[in-house]
Amino acid sequence: MKLRTWPVRLVLGCIAAGALVYGFTHGKLSEDEAKPPAPPASLSIWVYSKGWEDMVHAFGQRYPHIDVQIRSFRSYEQLYTELLASISAGAAPQLAEIHSFYGIAQLASTGAALPVGNVLTAGKPAFLPAFSAAFRYRDEDWAVPFGGSVPVLYYREEPFKRLAGRAPALSTWEEVRQTLSLVKEPPGEEVSKGYGTMTVDKELPWYLASLSYAPKESGGPAAERTRSALELWRNLTHESKLMKPLQHDRAASDFINGKAGMYVGSSDKLPTIERYIGGKFSFDLAKLPAWKQEALLPGVHGLVALKSDPERLKAAQSFVQEITAPEAQSALWNTVGLIPAREDVIGKLEEESALSERLRRILSWLPSLAGRAPRDDDYERWKRTEHMLEQIELNPQEPVEDVGMLY
């Protein structure tokens, strides 16, 4: 028996010894090996405006451990409606771009949005008061403004200078109508190129509200101002025929391509217009002509933070701090034309000797900005106003009713 079992014992001994050696060698090596890197923090951001690529790239270089996922929408309305749906489904992003036109009151009411105090952990910079007011609802700030724009009138210079012998006076709408009427008659060159017409960009309720805006005014006076602005709209489309109806989606391109002599748009369109006109003809810009307004109504871009887990919230806080830093604010102004939200950045820009005359003029209008507080029914008012203006452009006899329910 003993002679038969010694080979078995020998084999078992070899196995035990091998296991001991493996434990000393491979076990030691596994302890010395570098541990796999921790998975990156994720951050989901929904946006609708252009120019986010450089911002996200710069953020990624500074915070390589945060994986930023950007989802772009073709319009603010599409983003807003899908954001409400995502909140209901429990699948909202951590940050979303929001506009002062509508939506912040509704988002605050859902309980999913976070007040600004939860996001700007390093302290709140001094923002332009009109920009901050756009996102203040029920004594809380619900979005961080990072840039904005004002409504302006772009115009071609050469036809008006040639016919009037000087630069046009465009401080009032009556002066606009007189200037455009100069090129409605022969010589025919101007008529064929559309110099005697104007075009208005697609954010129609904003421009209508700007023509009649008076801070803190309500009731009968506010309704009368709105009614007057609607009648101006009717006159431009039908009586004077200076504005073609229902052409707003192509407003900017019509101006750039020489099919319109004037264009009402936002100040942040300036870099695009300069790039595509590229010296083909000379143009300039003026403050939105006066009608009944007492102040300029800005359009403000902001970031709203949605509730999420602590790790993603921390990543969102880092991104918000980055986009509101002075360097990023200046970059947004230089690349996409957004007026900085920070007062200190604006102060430094005004001191730059190399600042173009057009940009300096835009900054000079900022003291006349007024903050419009958000309302629960802003989106419904916006849609009603769009519909009313469409009906006026289609029908010169369209009655103007319920102006108190317009934007």
Care to describe what's here?
A hairpin with a 2-residue loop joins strand 4 and strand 5. The chain has 407 residues and is an alpha/beta fold. The strands form three sheets. Strands 2-1-3-11-6 form a five-stranded mixed beta sheet. Strands 8-9-7-10 form a four-stranded mixed beta sheet. The termini are far apart. Helices cover 47% and strands 14% of the residues. The chain has two domains: 41-148 and 299-368, Periplasmic binding protein-like II (D-Maltodextrin-Binding Protein, domain 2, 3-Layer(aba) Sandwich), CATH 3.40.190; 151-297 and 377-405, D-Maltodextrin-Binding Protein, domain 2. It is globular. This is ABC transporter substrate-binding protein. Pfam families: SBP_bac_8 (PF13416).
Give me the secondary-structure topology:
Blueprint: H1 2-32, E1 41-47, H2 52-62, E2 66-72, H3 76-88, E3 95-99, H4 104-110, H5 129-133, E4 136-137, E5 140-141, E6 144-149, E7 151-156, H6 158-164, H7 173-182, H8 188-192, E8 198-200, H9 204-211, H10 219-239, H11 251-256, E9 262-266, H12 270-277, E10 283-287, E11 299-305, H13 310-323, H14 326-336, H15 343-350, H16 357-364, H17 378-394
